[in-house]
Amino acid sequence: MKNNLIKGSILVALGSASYGMLATFVKMAYKEGYSTAEVTISQFTIGVIGILLISMFSQRQNIAGNAATAGSNWKSLLKLMIAGTAMGLTSTFYYLSVQYIPVSVGIVLLMQTVWMGVILEMILHKKRPGNRKILSVLIIIAGTVLATNLLQSSVTIDWRGVGWGMLAALSYTITVYASNGIALHLPVVRRSLYLVLGGLIIIMLIFHSSLNMNFSFDIFWKWGIVLSLFGTILPPLLFTMGMPLTGVGLGTIIAAVEIPVSVLMAHFLLKEPVNIVQWTGIVLILGAVVLMNIEKPRRA
Fold it and tell me: What is the span of the domain harbouring residue 158?
């Protein structure tokens, strides 16, 4: 039991760390002159191909079985693809945001999905959140003000980046709620395939005009493989294997490692400055995630 818990914790932590590296890699691609269209299209195209190959060689599935499943569950697959559009929008909005703001600010904005999820849960279930969740939301808002340096009068924040970042958090909230409740009877790899395929479709609809003579196809082997590996292939597989072993509460707490990983990656690779006030805000946000997900002691 203890070994399974440790194994699950490691898998979830690796999945979160993978997500945390993404924005830094995207910024590095931007510095080489690539656009958001080139980054997202290459990431999701290679992601679909990679997951498709994993699906084909998966021991749990075979081609005939896949065809039968597709025929009998086409509604479920369609729902997965629709949910995947939110995933594609999340990447698009997030990558647009880090064009204008530091990665450390972008990841903090993306984590606003925590309180957005509380509000969405309240609307869907028509139930007031508990006092602990309300307190956690207030702590996250306070932490966000500190982590984004809003109190520093000398710091100028590009509100275009903030706007894209909040849209990324909103679409990420929808992604989490939609994808975690759809076609749970299907194998993990197959669910991931259709989610990423839905993301690719919406990205192609948004950026189809960018597929012209100026599109740099060398993005596919320069950055596309790295971005798809850490953004669309590894995290879903690692989370799906790790979460059942840790439980949702502990898994969510461990997944918050995405924030410090993202900030540290940007600090060391992009030389983005992070002061003590920002670190205080980040610690507050991490504390709120723990407070929201830690289990209450039960009476005998």
Answer: 2-293
Residue 298 lies in a domain: no
Give a yes or no: residue 142 inside a domain. yes
Q: What is the pLDDT of residues 141-170, one digit of tens each?
A: 999 888 887 766 555 778 899 999 999 999
118-143: pLDDT as tens digits? 888 888 878 888 888 889 889 999 99
Asked whether residue 121 is domain-assigned, the answer is: yes
User: Which one, of 2, 10, 16, 7, lies nearest residue 264 by Cα?
Assistant: 16
The rounded percent of the chain whose pLDDT value lies above 70 is: 89
Its pTM stands at 0.86
**For residues 145 and 143, what is the distance between their CA atoms, to the nearest angstrom?**
5
How far out from the chain centre does Cα 297 lie? 30
Position 299 in a domain: no
Number of domains in the chain: 1
